[in-house]
Amino acid sequence: RTLTNKNITTSESQLSEVQIFPNPNNGNFYLQWNNIKNENSTNNIFTNQEVKILILDALGKIVFEEIIEINTEDVRREYSFKDFSSGLYLIQVFDRNQIDVPHVFKWIKE
Fold it and tell me: Nearest-CA neighbor of 46 among 68, 31, 29?
């Protein structure tokens, strides 16, 4: 099963699709989003910039934090958290156009 956030819109850009899959999972999953062009320029939204990824447990505690540099049009990252306890987690992805409003996903670790 894939959890998808579609058509998240900001005043300057639109992110076409963000996915976490498989979900639920055993701690191994992919986070993927398609990089699209800013409607006001020819630059891709995420290209050549840092993106912050946070994972929070059910109590809201940050259990993982990563800042990645995006240099390609599409992004697919593999994650392995087999040592995490089973349960519900939230994944937040912050891009430069949505510093205060992250893309949020529910992740279920079996």
Answer: 68
How far apart, in whole angstroms, are the C-alpha atoms of residue 23 and residue 52? 21
For position 10, what pLDDT does the model report? 34
Looking at the chain, how many residues does it have? 110
Percent of the chain with pLDDT over 70: 61
Report the C-alpha gap between 20 and 88 in whole angstroms.
14
Distance separating alpha carbons of residues 63 and 75, to the nearest angstrom: 22
CA distances to 1, 14, 66, 95 from 63, rounded to whole Å, are: 24, 28, 10, 20
**Distance in angstroms (rounded) separating the CA atoms of residues 49 and 67:** 10
Q: Give the integer Cα–Cα distance in Å for 26 and 109.
A: 6
Q: Which residues pair with 14 in a beta bridge?
A: 9
